[in-house]
Design brief:
Blueprint (H helix, E strand, L loop, with lengths): L9 H18 L4 E2 L8 H12 L5 H19 L3 E7 L5 H9 L1 H4 L4 E7 L2 H12 L7 E7 L2 H10 L6 E6 L9 H14 L5 E7 L4 H8 L5 H17 L8 E8 L4 E8 L3 E5 L4 E5 L4 E8 L3 H10 L2 E9 L4 E8 L1
Parallel strand pairs: 1-11, 2-3, 2-5, 3-4, 5-6
Antiparallel strand pairs: 6-13, 7-8, 8-11, 9-10, 12-13
Bound molecules: N,N-dimethyl-L-histidine (AVI).
């Protein structure tokens, strides 16, 4: 989620070109849009970590609590686990909670953990977090600086021949895919797995609108800063002249589509130039740029999309108070 490459390198140049191409394409759609994965530059990633600490954003804490209290049950279902792959490990704390809670099941037999992320710094942090887990449980950590799809293929190609493989896709990251994208991505995971391997997925659930509003438009303004930082990034990386103060953050619950949408709303009519994306545009007062969708699921709907992708339900654990589900499915 968080692109990184050495400044000035060929990889950095091609990442900037891809960014410029996407900005030109998405900002000229109706309504104007920006792909949400660009929210995660260094400052955006730090702001997202801060969001996870907010009292109104409960996904991270609910998931960690479920992993700590149900980790042993989860690992009992995937015994004997020898290969664990996490797509987008963040700080690595969630996987560490799972491994710690299920350490008894692993019985000190070596476990290979593959961490997949496009950000070298995220991989470094997650690797260090996991390295500090229970010293009686040997863990070999392999990092893949790659997209989820490429990293998953690399990781499964190197799975241990003995034992089973578990893929973890946590944090309700699936919620940032639109429904066709989620179906395609889950099918991709299924294709990379062998029969008997498992997928553990975290999903935020549909909940009262007032709770969703607070989670995505918090009183401290951290989510607003996270959203507006995307314009700061475009100014810095593509030489644009967005006037940040002329945009406000808006989060809306779209009940028909079961998603929270984040938008940036122009507070006055003005012109913006983005030279490195060859773009000049006039934004009307009240015009919006749609920056993220965060789909919310009902527990049964999670099972349905996983079954459609070729998995069979093993068990689902729900944090009722926070409205969050962890679902374990098996490739069949
Ligand atoms: C990373 N992702 C699951 C978060 C979400 O809840 O959709 C990103 C986020 N956007 C606003 N707050 C958090």
């Amino acid at each position: 989620m968080r692109p990184s490459a050495a400044p000035g390198s060929a990889a950095a140049r091609s990442a900037t070109q891809a960014f410029a191409g996407d900005i030109e394409y998405y900002l000229t759609l109706t309504p104007r849009q920006l792909p949400s994965h660009y929210l995660y530059d260094a400052l955006g990633s730090a702001l997202f970590e801060a969001i996870c600490e907010l009292p109104w954003y409960r996904i991270t804490r609910a998931e960690r609590a479920l992993l700590a209290s149900r980790g042993d049950d989860i690992l009992a279902h995937v015994d004997p686990l020898r290969t664990l792959i996490e797509l987008g490990p963040g700080s690595g704390e969630k996987l560490a909670a799972l491994v710690e809670a299920g350490a008894g099941r692993l019985r000190g037999i070596p476990l290979t953990v593959h961490l997949v992320d496009v950000s070298a710094s995220a991989l470094d942090l997650a690797g260090r977090t996991l390295g500090a887990v229970n010293p009686s449980q040997p863990i070999e950590i392999v990092t893949h600086q790659a997209t989820y799809e490429t990293g998953l293929v690399q990781a499964t190609a190197h799975r241990r021949s003995a034992g089973r493989t578990l893929v973890a896709f946590l944090g309700s990251n699936i919620g940032n895919f639109d429904p066709p994208g989620a179906d395609a991505f889950l099918r991709h995971i299924r294709t990379a797995l062998a029969i008997g391997d498992c997928l553990l997925i975290g999903t935020d659930l549909v909940k009262p609108e007032a709770e969703l509003q607070l989670a995505y438009d918090d009183p401290l303004g951290v989510t607003a800063a996270f959203n507006r930082n995307l314009l700061v990034r475009i100014n810095r990386e593509l030489g644009a002249d967005f006037d940040i103060a002329s945009f406000r953050h808006r989060a809306v619950w779209n009940e028909a589509e079961s998603r929270v949408e984040m938008h940036l709303v122009a507070t006055r009519r003005h012109q913006v130039r983005i030279p490195d994306a060859s773009l000049e545009m006039t934004l009307d007062e009240g015009e919006t740029i749609w920056t993220e969708s965060s789909y919310k699921y009902r527990p049964q709907a999670v099972v349905r999309i996983l079954e459609r992708a070729g998995f069979t339900l093993v068990e689902q654990w729900i944090h009722a108070e926070a409205g969050f589900a962890l679902t374990l499915v098996e490739a069949t």
